[in-house]
Amino acid sequence: MAPVALHTPEDPLSTHDAVPGHAPSAPHPAPEASSGPLSTALAQLAGAVDMLGLDAGVHEMLATPRREVHVAVPLRRDDGSTVLFRGYRVQHNVSRGPGKGGLRYHPSVDIDEVRALAMWMTWKCAIVDLPYGGAKGGVTIDPREHSTAELERVTRRYTTEIKPVIGPSRDIMAPDMGTDEQTMAWVMDTYSVSEGYTIPGVVTGKPIAVGGSLGRATATSRGVVHSTKAALNEAGVDLAGASVAVQGFGKVGAHAATIFAQEGAHVVAVSDQYGGVRHPDGLDMEALTAHVAETGSVVGFDRADPISNTELLALEVDVLVPAAVEGVIDETTARDVRARFVVEGANGPTTGAGDAILAKNGVIVVPDVLANAGGVVVSYFEWVQANQAYWWTESEIAERLEHRMHSAYADVSALARREDVSLRDAALAIGVQRVAEAHEIRGLYP
Ligand code: NAD
Hints:
By secondary structure, the protein is of the alpha/beta class. The protein has helices at 15-18, 37-52, 56-63, 111-127, 148-162, 181-195, 219-234, 251-262, 285-295, 309-313, 352-360, 368-371, 374-388, 394-419, 423-442; strands spanning 67-76, 82-93, 99-106, 134-140, 171-175, 243-247, 266-272, 275-278, 305-307, 319-322, 341-343, 364-366. Residues 175-178, 220, 247-253, 271-273, 309, 323-325, 345-347, 372, 375 line the site of nicotinamide-adenine-dinucleotide.
């Protein structure tokens, strides 16, 4: 494909003006890709590099994290024994601003997963035009097997180990799978105690009582709903009355399901790692939320029928929202997807092969780097508020979030139409181009 200019010719930021010296080049081999999410992320980057006509040197730079920290996290357990966990912090890119990205506690965390997640954060922050780079952290631990006291000790030790590379102007953490606002409060406290004064801007997604932002807890989910609405509107479909299935009932999926229901959609199925439930007329979200609060899972909710995660992905619905783990829509499951729209609440839920099958079958995919960007947008608002020590109202936050999401969607959709590419290809091209441009303008040191 011929290289794509992302701006009109009058615009001083056109690709070719902004990236002088990076004339379109012949296709070149992509940097080494492993399996799993990193190979998906690298293949996506290679596609964007081709579309933009960036050269091999820029490609290699964008494929390689600026900095990786590997740490050992020893824990003294409540019973007095000790156990050691692996921890990571990857700063994929910091050309547009400090690193920004979540902290994940999950047994399958490894360095390649963290690299992929950090890279997606870079594009995501650029797509919604935040002054951040991309980063991610993780500890290979199953939080369900540890007491609150143990998780606090793990968090404080991990924070201490990576402290040299984080900070409100260096790299700002937020919750991800297996971590929450309490985890962020421990990170902030550990960092602040070590510096000798309170530094709320080192993390976002904190409790309100210690400088968290109104609206942060539901921001990712609200962003998912805004981008769903935008995609449905373009296709002339009303969200009210549409049917929705949500995989994952955690911080993203549970709020998304509730907000979808509040918007008049029928949430016909939800699931978590233990299984799922369905009701053809729409689940009673209030009763379901109470059931989850009591039992810890959607499974066993008596006003619905059981359904497996695989069956949920194959439901005939208007909107399917994968909001759990990576790689669930792959070359096998994608063939069975009968939803008209897939809106990616999770990071990397669709593999490259899965994506190709969805495209062939006419399924419109709103990609993760756009669909779930609401969380980092309100994280940015939280950071701005912390830095100014001045707090905005919930309605100011909600309006600004909605505006950012709709304007990012409009940019992506316009490029997708103009170039006749998918929303994912268009989103990645915008994100990658903005980062490449920042690299080029800053120049190479020394
Ligand atoms: P969470 O830990 O709060 O919830 C995860 C949910 O997924 C739980 O309901 C869990 O039971 C379920 N789950 C785990 N493994 C599963 C499996 N194999 N099959 C089905 N369900 C499974 O995590 P979260 O913060 O809601 O994050 C979910 C996804 O959204 C992740 O990909 C994360 O990176 C992404 N994300 C989160 C945020 C945020 O603000 N929390 C922002 C952007 C993207």
